[in-house]
Amino acid sequence: MKRYSAFAVAREALTGHRGWERAWRRAQPKARYDVIIVGAGGHGLATAYYLGKRFGITNVAVLEKGWLGGGNTGRNTTIIRSNYLQDPSAAIYEKSRALYETLSQDLNYNVMFSPRGVMMLAQTEHEVRGYRRTAHANALQGVETRFITPAEVKKIVPIIRLEGPRYPVLGALWQARGGTARHDAVAWGYARACSAMGMDIIQQCEVTGIRRDGDRVTGVDTTKGAIACDKLGLVVAGHSGVLAQMAGFRLPIESVALQALVSEPIKPIMDCVVMANTVHGYMSQSDKGEMVIGGGADGYNNYTQRGSFHHVEETVRALIETFPMLSRLKMLRWWGGIVDMTGDRSPILSKTPLQNCFVNCGWGTGGFKAIPGSGWGFAELMAKGHAPLTDSFSLDRFREGRFIDESVAAGVAH
Amino acid sequence: MLILTCPCCGVAADEIELAPGGQAHIARRGPDSTDAAFEEYLFLRDNPRGVHFERWRHAMGCGKWFHAARCTATNEVFGTYPAQTTEPPQEIRDRIAERRTDQPKDSRA
């Protein structure tokens, strides 16, 4: 792999840009791998990367039924934050946020991490109390957040209306080192680094069956033939239920559609992320100037990759209440992704009933922010059988009642 | 927009009139059940990409619960039926079998 640098750009500029290589090799499957990861999204690629980087396991294939980063990695609103209430969540999300800080240097690929600040508005008395509690919890967890006043909110986001028609802004939970990153670049950067370590990233290779010998996985059947493996990691977000069905176990997961939309590009008006969970909308401005908008997930099981219009209507209504100046803005693009929701709204990074099969899923509506931390922890779990970062997120927590209850802690949007 | 006919009041209701209630036909476990049985009852779901039997409430209409058979991959609706059943009626199963030769008659494993 040729390193990207200012020197490389200058050299290529002088030679007509003929020397650039493909970022990753186009691989065909071998007969056998030490580890197969199903799903070449952010979490799958990050897992493969840290398997190689931290544990020296490089005989790895990452299988992808569509194209790399074409699932939820390419469909989210790119928000990165770690202001969670529960200790296990704060640990994994803060590890993730911290890895994002230096990810561009680590991968030698510009993921455009922009710690522009994440503001979660408190618009009811209950939310004020909830976020004050979160700020205290975060102080103990070593996550830097603080509760700010409406005057500070207005100073940071001048376009906001503090006296909304339904809910006034009573304060906000502010995480100054939260922000956004370029979502595709995260997947591409990890893919390039994995390929450079000799791993095979095999696109348009759909897993159609999982081969078992008793309670051990021996390999997978794919549209490109059978591939054997010692360990299997399922990292397929919304389609986790489908893969689990192939493997012969059930998951505490329901898949629903989550939508997002972007406006036409406008001049810079807001240099942080604002989330309004009571009225239910969140927004940031991309580097191109588009307003990137997200809202609530649908309530019923869905694999159609398109959601219900009334949810978009609610989101837009919420944002116009909060930012009246946006009311004439035209929307350019609108899409949906299939997210995997668990009962306690926390992810599952776990062993499964099959000995050498591991599952990383249930990130629900907030997986993008967790990509580096999830990969870091899940790689350790796959390599060593346990990991401090992921042990609390095991599948048996549902049976044992050890929930990591973020559905209460985070209100709605993740 | 998803439209389901409420079998209780007969109204063809838009999804904005309806509240989704998740997977149908889950048996309530008794007090002597194991932790595993309660886990199954409370959390484990089929979540199929295909025919799904599910609960809905006609929240902005007659207020009654009912069941629907819907494909989660296409939103095709195979019919609705009253909630006072422990399994999908034969008529609904037949309709699914007629339209979906590739699908099992019952998505439950």
UniProtKB/TrEMBL annotation, chain A:
Pfam families: DAO. GO terms for cellular component: cytoplasm. Keywords: Cytoplasm, FAD, Flavoprotein, FMN, Nucleotide-binding, Oxidoreductase. It comes from the Bacteria. Belongs to the SoxB family. This is Sarcosine oxidase subunit beta. It comes from Citreimonas salinaria. It catalyses: sarcosine + (6S)-5,6,7,8-tetrahydrofolate + O2 = (6R)-5,10-methylene-5,6,7,8-tetrahydrofolate + glycine + H2O2; sarcosine + O2 + H2O = formaldehyde + glycine + H2O2. It is found in: Cytoplasm.
TrEMBL record, chain B:
Residues 80-109 are annotated as: Disordered. It comes from Citreimonas salinaria. One of its GO terms (molecular function) is sarcosine oxidase activity. GO terms for biological process: tetrahydrofolate metabolic process. Residues 90-109 have a biased composition (Basic and acidic residues). InterPro entries: SoxD, SoxD_sf. It comes from the Bacteria. This is Sarcosine oxidase subunit delta.
